[in-house]
Amino acid sequence: MKKSKNDILKNPPYLEVAFDIPDWRRVEGIIRALPNRDAIVIEAGTPLIKRYGVEVVEKIHQMKPGSVVLADLKTLSSGKREARMAGEATADVVAFSGLAPLKTQEEFIEECHRVGALALLDTINLHDPIDVLNQLSVKPDIVEIHRAIDLELTDAEHQWGNIAEIKEAIGGGLVTVAGGIKVPRVKEALASKADILVVGRAITCAKDVNGAAKEFLHEMGVD
Amino acid sequence: MVDSDFLVGEALVGEEPEIAHIDLVVGSKKGHIGQAFANALAQPKMGHTPILAVVRPNLPVKPATLIVPKVTIRDLEGAELIFGPAQSAVAKAVSDEVEKGTIPMESVEDLVIIVSVFIHPRGKDYQRVYRYNYAATRLALRRAIEGFPGIETVLEEKPKSAHEMIGFRINNLEQPPYLGVELEFDDWRRIEGILKALPRKDGIIIKAGAPLIKRYGVEVCQKIHQIRPESVLIADMKTLDTGNLEARMAGDATADVIAYSGLAPFKTQERFIEECHKVGAMAYMDTINLPDPVEVINQVSEKPDIVELQGIPDQELVRRIKKACGDDVLVAVAGNIEVPNVDEALASGADILVVGRVMTCDKDINGTARAYLHEMGIYEVDQFRIMTDF
Fold this sequence. Notes:
The structure holds two protein chains of two kinds.
Chain A: E1 14-19, H1 24-33, E2 40-44, H2 46-52, H3 56-63, E3 68-75, H4 79-88, E4 93-97, H5 102-114, E5 118-122, H6 129-135, E6 142-145, H7 149-152, H8 163-169, E7 174-177, H9 186-191, E8 196-199, H10 201-204, H11 209-220
Parallel strand pairs in A: 1-2, 1-8, 2-3, 3-4, 4-5, 5-6, 6-7, 7-8
Helix pairs in contact in A: 4-5
Chain B: E1 6-13, E2 20-28, H1 32-42, E3 51-52, E4 54-56, E5 59-60, E6 64-69, H2 76-100, E7 111-118, H3 126-146, H4 151-157, E8 178-183, H5 188-197, E9 204-208, H6 210-216, H7 220-227, E10 233-239, H8 243-252, E11 257-261, H9 266-278, E12 282-286, H10 293-299, E13 306-310, H11 315-324, E14 330-334, H12 342-347, E15 352-355, H13 357-360, H14 365-376
Parallel strand pairs in B: 6-7, 8-9, 8-15, 9-10, 10-11, 11-12, 12-13, 13-14, 14-15
Antiparallel strand pairs in B: 1-2, 2-7, 3-6, 4-5
Helix pairs in contact in B: 2-3, 8-9, 10-11
């Protein structure tokens, strides 16, 4: 049974497992290996969606009916249509880019709420997220502080800065932090008031996927 | 006569299945070709036994000419075609060209020729085999001596040629303007209808919109190419992250042009463009919500092949973009420009007009497309040219 929007992500912290591997057979194996915990959110990454179409969200739900699944569409235009598409494919949370025109973002958020999903603003390459959040007439439910994977290669600095300020700007939503978080940094991330930790390859490319996920959950105190 | 070590000629003459395809090399006995000639004769391969061309039995032609069958000879019938009509046709052709002066009489003892002969296993008619191979050998020999084709001809013909078996040509958008049709819908059945309604014209390129790709996955590119194999296809990935991964995915799905967002981190853009070039695709920069595209282009080390602007731009902006890309870029103008404004759009320096709903939502898609093509002055490549061989 699909949860209503009000029931989604009520008990942070959450561990979001991100799949940026555009290979469904591998993804399938990894999802099966994940522990069955309410604290796990599954993210269908942009490359995965672009490769197979947003229907992959439904395929993930078929394997893990109870899980919250996030569709990372990184929408830049056609806000309404893309949000609707993801909602129809059973996404619980749908992500758009904070770089999109404001109108696109607002239409996206409204459409998410119509289809009963949460809207997530992705701050990738956005220099002043607070400024964008203040300008939006409707606020996203979640903001993701994110570093582009390509940037991880050169830019080692974590940008976890102003989480409290962001929460205030969206009237008390959730903040997600992404970008190469490993187990030793979990406590630091949670201390910075993050609600959701995005972990990708540290779990999905681990030999022992289940063990790696449990290690994170344990460190987060939600095991 | 021969400046370089050897000369190369090629010719295709006739109709299937007896069609003659000749590749030949001509060169000095003292050089590489002389060596190859002796090696080929001394080391025959099964089914590809080389034989000397003879005007009639016991009378080999000069310059000495070695015939190498391209297709493996499996039975006596195949052998008879090569040892009969082809062998004598090649000899007759070489001797006729000597008589005509293409090969100077005094050099016939210094030169050798190796002729690679194609005979289709289903070829039956000796008349045709003989005449076609005679004509093709003469033509190939003349072409070798004349150095045909000159590189100017190759460059001139390259964007026009379509291989007959593939039925379409790789189009690198070398002859703008082009009309881009943007498929903004995320409903495949509707897309299919639009694709079939559009006229089949070289000037039309197709853009698979981001919602379409996100809905069905990038494989939709291949489905579009199945309906319109000859069309250049832009996959609008609107990439913001994982540049190389997304470019590779789209390239593997047969996209000819792949679009990213100019809002992406520079590193992502650079990796995206590099990857596009690795998979033989063009990189297309989308400038939605980007205040100054020129500044971004100046800051990335790899430049896009196409830059898309929204609405009719002023000439100055187009000029600056082209300059920033080393004048090796096409500018596309999107935003549903209507037919009466086509001239104005082209006057801004735009190379591609990208139209969406104004065409795809029209009841008469075919007619609207033709109206655009007409207004843009786009005609078919080689439509009015009578061609025989190239």
